[in-house]
Amino acid sequence: MRKQLLSLLLLGSLSGCGYNSLQAGDEEIKASWSEVLNQYQRRADLVPNLVNTVKGYATHEQTVLQQVTAARARVGSIQATPELAANPQALAEFQAAQGQLGSALSRLLVVSENYPQLKADAGFRDLQAQLEGTENRITVARNRYIKSVQAYNITVRSFPSNLTAMAFGYQVKPNFSVDNEKALATPPRVDFSASTAQ
User: What is the reported pLDDT for 154?
Assistant: First the structure.
């Protein structure tokens, strides 16, 4: 009887300690991260089709096509696992690779503006729309992940759940960051004087 009473008291004290909140938060982060990876994979899967479509029209734009292909290869070389999200250095490398791919894709789409036949191609327009939709999905998935990490980190750092977090080894998780915050704070310069009439 005495052991049962002690067990009930122990269970009662654990219910308010935040352990379940830590577990729920950790699982939410894993699920959110999986969705981020899913959307990045969708983008990576679209790249070969987009490159091949552009290749047929823009044969002398090999540099841009090679940059896109190389950026996709860098993204593919990173093992994207749930553990990656817990490692700040690996997360930064993953973000950098994804940023390079996004930048290369942007250059590819700019190149496509020089080819009216390409812009008129239904396959290219479909791929471009899918890519734009995927970029939006990536933004939404990253936002959900950021919010999940924020909620989890609040639980890890708040009293009394921080005591439970320390006892069970739960630590604050890294979140997505911006490579160069100063560059984002500088407003873009717009100059129409250099444009040429075509």
Answer: 93
